[in-house]
Design goal:
17 strands, 20 helices, single chain, four-stranded mixed β-sheet, alpha+beta
Amino acid sequence: MRHFSKKGKVSIVMCILLLLLAACANNSEGDNSISVKETDDVETKPIKLVFVSNDPVNNNRPGDVQDKVHEIIQEKLGVDLNAVLPATRDEVSQRINLMLSSGQQLDYFKTQMAKGLELYKNDAIVPLNDLLDQYGENLKKAIPADLWDKATVDGKIIGIPSIPQNTTPNVLQIRTDWLENLNLPMPKTIADYENVMDQFVNSDPDQNGKQDTYALNAGNGGTIEELERAFGPFFMEQGMEWWQDEQGRLLPPEMNPAYKDMMAKFMEWNNKGYIWPEMILSKRDSRVKAIANNKIGSVAGWYTSTIVGGLEVLVKSVPEANYVPILLEGSGINKLDKVPVDPSVVVITKSSSNPEAVMKFFDYAATREGFELTTLGIEGESYKKLPNELTEYIGEAKTDWNKAKYYYLYAPFTYVKFEGVPPWTMDSWLESQYRKVLDLTEQLPSFQAVDYNVVYDKSQWSSFSKLNDLDTYLLEQKVKVFLGEVPLSDWDTIITKWNEIGGGQMIEDRNAQFNAFKK
């Protein structure tokens, strides 16, 4: 057997190493090697994230700008955003539920807090505390502390809460040009308003020589509940919020003695023909068209419900047409209800491929750069900034969001407030009207419900499974009473039955959490 000296062994090893290095150098551009570029491709492969668009019809604008927005986000953050687009807005929840139940990849989506709470209890979404601490610096600055509290359950933040643009959104708005046409002052009391209603119906406020106008309609929803929310503060001390009896017990507004007085007025106004007769059975498009056709003198409901497709169209033929929010003096608190915030939340699912990447994207979208990119698109291509901090779309339709080259598809949040930047930044009639009505409502006195700050965990209520049935039953009975199918004198009987089918338990559940919160 041949033996090698220690020095010889070292020489052989060195030779082998030199040969290997030479081989590597010679093959650095060969087909079988792992090139630097290939290694980079592996390291920088974008992370696929899937979300469901909550407004798939309006938000999807296929084209170069939308593609570029996707590319910029991918380059900046290394994420490949994939939008799931149901055929209609009504199908969004159905698609989310299907994807969750089937185990398909779904990284994040927007939902109501109640649904988010249910998903959290079922271990379907990720608590965000740690992710926010690590990657959510901008988010924590952008969203007020009280909203984080509203999105917190058992000390766990279950979703990114939405920021409301208006906390007093339910208002009564009246046509000021019709008041001028009839030489009527702005109504101050309910009695004044009833006089105006009569004139709006019988004295030709639109000056077309016909008796074809109506004094009142509901807003977007076209429901009794919209009338209640707008008029409740003029009849009850807590409006349509829960109130306390002499023992300090929380009770629903429908059990307030003054509720029947308000319902009696609705019925009276309906019988006199003051209320648009199609209100209950119409679809939103019909209610908006009635405004656009110069038929409606006042609207009770969401503060923007007079604008899109309604006043927006009407001012083209009646330039002086205008609605403004008002307060009336009645037996109630006579202030706008500062609605307890029940925020929608953007949640990250347990099936997310990379929750850290999702949170980094959310945090970017909470910066001004990220928010403008995900909502308006690319500056210089889809929009431009004006000196007054407003913006306009690039193209023939500079102010028409329907014709924008890009619109909100990749935006996880509807609104983020930045100092010095107004809400609805478009320099258009439509968005200026939004800003105007928002400013007017914010100037009116407001109140907070007695349980405004309470975060109710309804999933823990014994009545939880009955809540939808209770709401459905009560709404059905309200409609029947309003239409005269059931006499108002039966209201106490209706409430008794509501208590029996679960309402009484719901009152117990709500009071238990209310009392625990006060401690």
